[in-house]
Write the C-alpha cells for this entry.
Amino acid sequence: MRNYPIDHILPALKTALLHSPSAVLLAPPGAGKTTRVPLSLLDLVPDGNRRIIILEPRRIAAVSAARWMSRLLGENVGGTVGYTIRFDSCVSKSTRIEVVTEGVLTRRIQRDPGLEGTAMVIFDEFHERSIHSDFALSLCIDVQKALREDLKLLVMSATMDCGPISDVLGNAPVITSAGSSYPVEERWSPDKFAGRLSERISGAVNTALRETNGDILVFLPGAREIRSCNEALSRLLSDTNDISIHPLYGDLPFEQQEAAILPADRRKVVLATNIAETSLTIEGVVAVIDSGLTRRLQYDPSSGMNRLVTINVSRASAEQRKGRAGRLGPGVCYRLYSRQTFDAMVPFASPEILTTDLSSLVLDLAVWGVHEPSGLAWLDAPPSSSWESARRLLTELGCLDKLNRVTGKGKEIAVLPLHPRLGSLLHRAAELGCPSLGADLASLLSERDVFRGGPAGPADPDIAARLDALSFWRDRKKAPDGADPWALKSTDRTATQLKRLISGKSGNSSRDNCGVDIVPLLLLSAFPDRIAKKREDGRGRFVLCNGRGVRIPPECGMAKSDFIIAANLDAGENAEGVVHLAAELDADLIRRELNRNITGIRKVEWDRREGRIVAFEEERLGEIVISSKPLKTSDEENRKVVCDAIGSMPQLLDFNREVRQFSARVALIAKTFPEEDWPDFSDEFLFSHIGEWLAPWLGGIRNAAQLAALNVLPALRARLTWDRQRLIDERAPVSITAPSGSRIVVDYTAGDVPVLAVKLQEMFGLAETPAIAGGKVKLLLHLLSPARRPVQITSDLKGFWNSGYQQVKKELKGRYPKHPWPDDPWNAVPTRRVKSRM
C-alpha cells in the first residue's frame, strides 16, 4: 500500500484520541487525511454496532472518499466503508465507516440525540467553515457533554488557525502533519492585463498545453464562467481529439462530476469552482490556472434576500489551488493576477455562518430545544440580526410560535432535506392533497434551473414553464427546446424522492389532478414575504412587501401582472433585485391566504406632488398596497391635514408684506414691553403652532392654490384682544406724519429698529428724531435724495442738521437744482415738492 505523509503522525493521533475526547488534526492537501485517518482509527472503535461517521462538505467528495477507502481495503462500497448523501445511501450491517454529507448528520442527531450507533465523528475539510459543519460540531459537543462522554470528535483541516477550534473542544490536543507535494512554479499576470475572462482562460490553457504534459485544472468563480470558458475552449481545441474538457461544479449531474475527477484515456482540462480546492482529488493534474475569483452568497437580514457576489479568494484558498499542481510531480500554477493582488487578499474566507441565511439553523436548534445562540458552543456565534430575521420568517411560516418554540409543523419540516420555505410548501401541498405537485415545485426550486444557462437563460421567469418542461420530460423522456436534460433528470429524481418522503409511497410523480392554479397558493405558503406589486411605471419593475424593488424582463408576459410572487431572486448588484422564478398572483388569493397580515389603513394626507388633500382607504401588506379606494373626509380632518402640510412646507402660505409688517409690529411691542406678556409672533412659533391660530380660517381649503389665496392677516390679528390691537395701532403705527404733512409708512421688517424712509426735504425744521412705542423706540431715518436713494442713515436728526447736511447739500445741489437746498434747514419750509411748485 502506498505510503502517505499522514502515516507518520497516526500513532500520535491515536494516542491523543485514547486519552482525550477530542482532537484536532492539521494536514495540508495531499497528506492523505481523508482516506488514511478513518481506516487507521478503526482499531479504536470496539467491534459491534458503532461506526465512525465522517462529514464531507459535498456529495461528490463523500462518494469519492468512500470509494477510495473501499478500494484500499479491496472491497466494494457498502462493505466496511459506505456513504449516505441526500437521497442516496450505500451502507450495510457490516459498515463501520460511513461518509456522510453535513445535513445528513444534523438530521440524524435530531432523530437520535445520543448518537447511539456512533463511536466517533470526524469533521473533514473543516477549514471550509460551512454553516452545516459549524452547526454539526456544536451539536456534537453538546451531545458529548450531556449524553455521551465516550463519543470521540476529530476535526481535520488543511489550513486554519487551530487554536480557537481546540479551545471550543475543551483544549483538545492539536496534531500536525507535513504534506507531500512537489515544487510548484508560480507565474503571475499583471493586474493591468484586460480582456474577457474566457479569453484570458483560453490563452492560459493554450500556454499550459504547450508547456506541460499532464492534465490542467482551471479554477473559476461559478457555473456561468465555466460554461463560457467551455464554449471558448471547445472552439480553440476543435481540431484535436486527444484533449477533453470537463466542467466541475456542484449543480452538475453526478455522472458529469465523476467524469471530471476520474482518470481518463486522454489529457483533461477540468474547469472547476472551489469544489476542487481540497475535498476532491483529481489525478493527473500538473498545471493549475487560477482566476483568483470565487462566488458566494451574502445574506442581507434587512431585506431577507441573498446576493450572489464575485470576490477575490483568500490567500489560503489561493495556496490550496496552487498545491493541486504539485501532487504527482513538479507543477506550474498560472495565476491570472499579480503578486500584489495576492498579498492584498484576506488570509482566510469568512465562515458561512456569518454571511448566510440562518432559517434552517434556527429551526434545527428549536427542535433541539435551544432558543438562543448562547445555548451552544460556537466557533463563531451566529449574528443577532440574521438570527432575528430567521425567527421572523419561521414564525411567518408557522414553524415557531410566539414564544419561539417549535410547532408541530416545524418538527415535520425540520426532518426534510429542504430549506424551511420549501418544507412549508411541501407541507401545504400534502394538506391540499397535491403531494406530487408540491414535490415538483420544491424540486424545481431546490435544483438547478431546468433551462440552460440557469436563471439568466430564458427571458420569462414563469415557474409554470418549468413545470411544463418537467411534464414534457416525463412523457417523452426528452427535453423540450431550451431545457437541460441533465437538470430535468435530476429534478425528476429529487421530486420522486420528496414525494416518497411526504406520502410514504413510491408512485409516479403525476400532478395529483391538481391544476397549475394551485401553484401560487403553494408558493404563498413558502414565500409570504416575497409578494411583489407592479410599479406604476411598469416595465417589469415591482416592489416587494418589505419595500425593496425587484425586476423581471419587461418583455415577458408576467411583467404586466399586478402582483407576482418571487420564488427565486437575488439582491442583484444595483438598487433592484432580480427575480429568476415567479408566478402570477391576484389580490383575492392574497386576501384569502394572508388576511392575518393585511392591515386596513385610512389615510387622509397632503399629496406634495399634486399639492392637495388626498383621502383613501387602503389594504396594505407590508409596504405594498393591495387595494385603495377614495374616502370622504370631515372638515376637521381636512383642517388637520392642511395644518400639518403648512407646518412642513411653510411656503404654502403667502406671508405678504402686510402680514410681515403686522408680525414685526407685535414683536417690537412685545420686546419693548416685556412685562405685558404679548403673544409670540415669530415664524418659528407660528409654523409650529399652525393649528392653534389658523385652523378656524381653513374651512373649505383642500389644495395649494386655495392656500396661496388665503389672507392670513385676519387670523393673526385675531390672536390679539381688541384692546391689544388698539395698543398696537397706537404704539406701533403703520405710518407717521412727516413735517411736510405726508403720511410715511414705517418699515418694521427692516431689522431690529423700525425704519422711516423719507425725503430729506420733508424733514426740514424737525429737531427730534421721530419715536414710537410711547417714545421708547426712536425710528432709524433713511433720509432720501430726490431720486429716493438714502443719503444719510441716522437716528440723530439734530446732529445731521448741524453737521452732516451741509456736505450732502454740497454734493447734491448741483445734481438736483429743482429741489430746495436752503442754507438754513432749521428754518426752511418742509416740502415734498420741487421749487417751482412750492
